[in-house]
Automatic annotation (TrEMBL):
It comes from the Bacteria. This is DUF2927 domain-containing protein. InterPro entries: DUF2927, SH3-like_bac-type. SMART domains: SH3b (SM00287). Transmembrane segments: none annotated. It holds the Pfam family SH3_3. Residues 38-107 form the SH3b domain.
Length: 351
């Protein structure tokens, strides 16, 4: 049986500037204006450099992602032959230059699904957005189109995934046995127990999370399949060989040929963050290791919010995603079309 690993690194540094100075000869800058645009790239997960000056030789001030919404403030024709745009991310107040082939101006900004300044990223083009119509009503509760759209983004999308590997539902079955190693605080363990209790309630028997002790009992029935390491970030690469440096929280999951997750490794830093931030990381990384593997710029109150955050409770939309993933009608290996077929069938039954 071929086993397929997946890694999703939670970028958990606040947005920082790289103060690099570069001297460059620039063309005359055109008059300024502001118009909406979107960062574009061949891959939906591509990281796009936002530079101090309009040149690939200039220092990198920030990084954005394909799909990020920006406003163009001005443009210039640089000596490399490209048009460069000076853009701003309204939510961060971040500004910088992006090469023209990575920016797609739009005539008028489409109405965002949420009226919030936190909305910087639209759903991936590979994810269909359903209209805001009547709610879909699965047996576990009422799902609105807003919740379903977010589910498609978080459950079927993925950062740093293998090519083509993030287009199916992946989830656990049965018991999820969690052990922790390292140096957790009393508050860390309180958060961990709270997350376990809440997930068990939300999944309504779809899976069962429990803490286990090591060494394991006779027969191996209590062998852990999720290990949470509480350690300094400097030790992460020793604890998980697939760790990508620069993350205060990280997880790596493994699934089988049937897209059933069978193992996960979770890393939580014990340095450089506050207790509240660490409580957030515990909640987010453990939840994402259950199959909700993507981050989003959409909802600041969500634990899946991409920018640096210290949210320590599930929002209502987070709770709906957990219920949806572990609804018995949503199976491992389902594609987006199959998920929508299940939800549309239920919607029709409610009419």
């Amino acid at each position: 049986m071929q086993l397929k690993p997946f890694a999703r690194a939670a970028m958990r540094y606040p947005l920082t500037r790289v103060l690099l100075a570069t001297s460059i000869s620039l063309a005359v800058i055109l008059p300024t204006w502001a118009r909406p645009a979107m960062l574009t790239a061949n891959l939906a997960t591509s990281q796009i450099n936002v530079r101090l000056n309009p040149s690939t030789q200039s220092g990198i001030a920030y990084s954005g992602y394909a799909g990020d919404r920006v406003d163009i403030l001005k443009q210039t024709q640089a000596s490399d032959g490209y048009t460069w745009y000076y853009v701003t991310f309204d939510h961060f107040g971040a500004k910088g230059w992006v090469r023209g082939d990575l920016v797609s101006p739009i005539a008028s900004a489409p109405s965002p699904s949420v009226k919030s300044p936190a909305v910087l990223k639209q759903p991936s083009p590979a994810i269909a957005v359903i209209p805001e119509t009547r709610p879909v009503r699965p047996s576990s509760g009422e799902f609105t189109s807003k919740q379903i759209n977010y589910f498609l983004e978080i459950a079927l999308g993925a950062e740093f995934s293998q090519s083509g590997s993030a287009s199916k539902i992946r989830k656990w079955q049965g018991d999820v046995r969690i052990q922790y190693l390292g140096s957790p605080t009393t508050e860390d363990l309180k958060t961990l127990n709270s997350v376990i209790s809440e997930v068990n309630e939300l999944t309504n028997g779809g899976i069962h999370l429990q803490l286990v002790e090591q060494p394991c009992c006779t027969g191996g029935v209590r062998n852990p399949n999720i290990t949470i390491h509480f350690a300094p970030e400097s030790q992460f690469s020793q604890l998980e060989p697939n760790y990508q440096p620069g993350n205060y929280g990280y997880f790596w999951t493994r699934w089988d040929a049937n897209n059933r997750i069978y193992n996960a490794n979770v890393l939580i830093t014990t340095t450089k963050v506050t207790q509240k931030e660490r409580s957030h990381l515990i909640r987010e990384e453990l939840t994402q290791s259950l199959g909700l593997m993507q981050d989003s710029f959409k909802y600041a109150e969500s634990v899946f919010y991409q920018p640096w955050t210290d949210v320590t409770q599930y929002s209502e939309i987070d709770r709906s995603l957990i219920r949806m993933l572990y609804d018995p009608k949503i199976s491992s290996g389902m594609t987006q079309a199959q998920v929508m077929n299940v939800l549309n069938t239920r919607q029709a039954q409610q009419r």
